[in-house]
């Protein structure tokens, strides 16, 4: 059966060139980068090269990139590290209602420990109103954390403007750029970011490796304590193969960035337009153009997303939904809730995310199957007109 | 096959039995709402205290659709007392089991069926022991 993977925002396959570059570092060049002999140096060199490649993709200096185990760790470190280092200056964090759980749940954790957190609303298209940020700032704010691209609806925030507001008030700005990396031009200096979380497995690298960008001079406390790896800021023997893979993936992403964006944008727009043309009562969640080039989050009135996911899976098509029917009450997506979409329509939403191996034929097949599935589920639906 | 559900569930999800509405139904029951994430309506025809036909429509996940499908199959041809005695456990077991997180979906079907019979009883003035204390609008989350 045909297999169509349309969940690239969940994870991506490791590219061949990436895997090939990783393989020697499992058994041949396996040395510990901290060891003071030849095979240790080789590993050290490989980590340095990877750091250089990742730094180059985001316009950072090499010494500003610190490898972690994941984007989640980078988010946790950034928030905890700033709050701990700045605890004498204030106890107030500003973030948004549409952040990834890696940010939201850490903020909730800190709230229970006496920190104050403001969760900014977003506008109906998913964009943060810079004025709302400005208005939320108090003298106790020590950190602003706003994601660059949302993982569910793909919305791109006006980060430069938001960073300028933070700078004006002398507040550190962190962004979760896990979905943005390799999918939009991204330059930390140009945007004015102080801290940024990224991850390898969203850009055709391996799982289990991420990084935190910490602008030179920004002081944050350590999160992992132990050895002196990563300039004594993040302890733990380096995930050598993972870091090598991250570096190669970053190099490829930089080399083909514009081509990748143009191709995905064209496929995405084709997909959204065709689906909306072929299937009645479909709407797009999130801003139409300020959007991840591969993200199409659509709602199909009168039917429930998870039943669509299941049906598509039977046809070999992998997608995701924002809602999870895993308890007595189906929990609607916190992101779509923040967009003020009626709850029944949140339950009808499905996320399709396209990537480098998505073809026009894949999309045509998906649209064709989708039309049949939607029709069938609407016939079963008691609320269908 | 999909590893979340067994083949019986997938069959009832992809080829649901008894989908639709019945014109001049003797009883109509509804439970849930699109806001909660699932909703089922059940239509029944009754002859001499026996369910002669049953149809359903469901907005919900795969297990909600499969549960409604098999539940309407189970009730056809049975007496009202027999239908009222159908438990959610029975619905789940007829489906060959549901993942733990999805067992609650069978409650939806059973409650809608009971509501349809309640509607029939209201219209005809009949009483059934199995309806004692039943409130069609109440949240039902007990599992017997």
Describe this structure in words.
The complex is a heterodimer of chains A (385) and B (144). With 385 residues, chain A is α/β, with parallel strands linked by helices. Helix content of chain A is 42%, strand content 14%. Chain A contains 15 helices and 13 strands. Chain A has a seven-stranded mixed β-sheet with strand order 2-8-7-6-5-3-4, sandwiched between helices. Chain A has a four-stranded antiparallel β-sheet with strand order 9-10-13-12, with helices on one face. In chain A, α1 packs antiparallel against α10, α4 runs parallel beside α5 and α11 runs parallel beside α15. In chain B, β2 and β3 form a beta hairpin. Chain B has a single domain, classed as Sufe protein. Chain: A, CATH 3.90.1010. With 144 residues, chain B is α+β, with helices and mostly antiparallel strands. The mean pLDDT of chain B is 92. In chain B, α2 crosses α5. Chain B contains five helices and three strands, in the order αβββαααα. The interface between A and B is medium-sized, with 26 and 31 residues.
Largest interface: A-B, 26 and 31 residues
- Strand/helix succession of chain A: EHHHEHEHEHEHEHEEHHHEEHEEHHEH
Q: What's the mean pLDDT score of chain A?
A: 96
Shape of chain B: globular
Cα gyration radius of chain A (Å): 21 Å
The number of domains of chain A: 2
Q: What is the name of the CATH architecture of the largest domain in chain A?
A: 3-Layer(aba) Sandwich
**Biggest sheet strand line-up of chain A:** 2-8-7-6-5-3-4
Layout of SSEs?
The complex is a heterodimer of chains A (385) and B (144).
Chain A: E1 4-5, H1 16-22, H2 24-27, H3 38-58, E2 65-68, H4 71-85, E3 92-96, H5 101-111, E4 116-120, H6 130-136, E5 141-145, H7 159-168, E6 172-176, H8 188-191, E7 195-199, E8 210-214, H9 229-232, H10 240-255, H11 257-278, E9 282-284, E10 295-300, H12 305-314, E11 317-318, E12 320-321, H13 334-338, H14 343-346, E13 349-353, H15 360-380
Helix pairs in contact in A: 1-10, 3-10, 4-5, 11-15, 12-15
Chain B: H1 7-14, E1 27-33, E2 38-47, E3 50-59, H2 62-75, H3 80-84, H4 88-94, H5 105-124
Antiparallel strand pairs in B: 1-2, 2-3
């Amino acid at each position: 059966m045909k297999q169509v993977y349309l969940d690239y925002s969940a994870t991506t396959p490791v590219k061949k060139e990436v895997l090939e570059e990783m393989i020697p570092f499992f058994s041949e060049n396996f040395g510990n980068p901290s060891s003071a002999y030849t095979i240790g140096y080789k590993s050290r060199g490989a980590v340095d090269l990877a750091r250089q490649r990742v730094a180059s993709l985001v316009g950072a200096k090499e010494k500003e990139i610190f490898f972690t185990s994941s984007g989640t760790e980078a988010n946790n470190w950034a928030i905890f590290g700033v709050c701990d280092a700045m605890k004498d200056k204030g106890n107030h964090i500003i973030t948004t209602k549409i952040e990834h759980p890696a940010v939201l749940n850490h903020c909730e954790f800190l709230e229970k420990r006496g920190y104050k957190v403001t969760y900014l609303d977003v506008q109906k298209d998913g964009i943060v109103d810079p004025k709302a940020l400005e208005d939320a700032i108090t003298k106790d704010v020590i950190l602003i954390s706003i994601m660059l691209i949302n993982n569910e609806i793909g919305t791109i925030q006006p980060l430069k403007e938001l960073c300028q507001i933070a700078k004006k008030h002398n507040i550190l700005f962190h962004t979760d750029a896990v979905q943005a990396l390799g999918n939009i031009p991204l330059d930390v200096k140009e945007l004015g970011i102080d801290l940024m979380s990224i991850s390898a497995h969203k850009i055709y690298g391996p799982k289990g490796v991420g990084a935190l960008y910490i602008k030179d001079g920004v002081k944050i406390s350590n999160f992992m304590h132990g050895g002196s790896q990563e300039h004594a800021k993040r302890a733990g023997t380096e995930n050598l193969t993972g870091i090598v893979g991250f570096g190669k993936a970053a190099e490829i992403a930089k080399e083909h960035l514009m081509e990748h964006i143009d191709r995905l944008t064209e496929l995405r727009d084709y997909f959204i337009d065709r689906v909306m043309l072929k299937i009645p009562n479909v709407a797009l969640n999130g801003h139409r153009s300020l959007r991840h080039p591969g993200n199409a989050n659509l709602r199909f009135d009168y039917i429930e997303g998870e039943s669509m996911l299941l049906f598509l899976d039977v046809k070999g098509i992998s997608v995701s939904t924002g809602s999870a029917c895993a308890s007595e009450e189906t929990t609607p997506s916190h992101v779509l809730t923040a967009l003020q979409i009626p709850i029944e329509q949140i339950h009808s939403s499905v996320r399709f995310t396209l990537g480098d191996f998505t073809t026009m034929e894949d999309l045509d097949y998906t649209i064709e199957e989708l039309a049949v599935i939607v029709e069938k589920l609407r016939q079963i639906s008691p609320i269908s007109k | 096959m999909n590893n979340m559900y067994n083949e019986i569930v997938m069959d009832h999800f992809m080829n649901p039995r008894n989908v639709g509405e019945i014109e001049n139904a003797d009883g109509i029951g509804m439970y849930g709402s699109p806001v909660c994430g699932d909703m089922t309506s059940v239509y029944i025809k009754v002859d001499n205290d026996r369910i002669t036909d049953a149809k359903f429509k469901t907005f919900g996940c795969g297990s909600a659709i499969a549960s409604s499908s098999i539940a309407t199959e189970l009730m056809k041809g049975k007496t009202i007392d027999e239908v009222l005695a159908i438990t959610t456990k029975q619905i789940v077991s007829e489906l060959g089991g549901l993942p733990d997180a999805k067992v609650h979906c069978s409650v939806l079907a059973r409650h809608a069926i009971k509501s349809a019979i309640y509607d029939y009883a209201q219209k005809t003035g009949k009483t059934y022991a199995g309806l004692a204390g039943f409130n069609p609008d109440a949240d039902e989350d007990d599992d017997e």
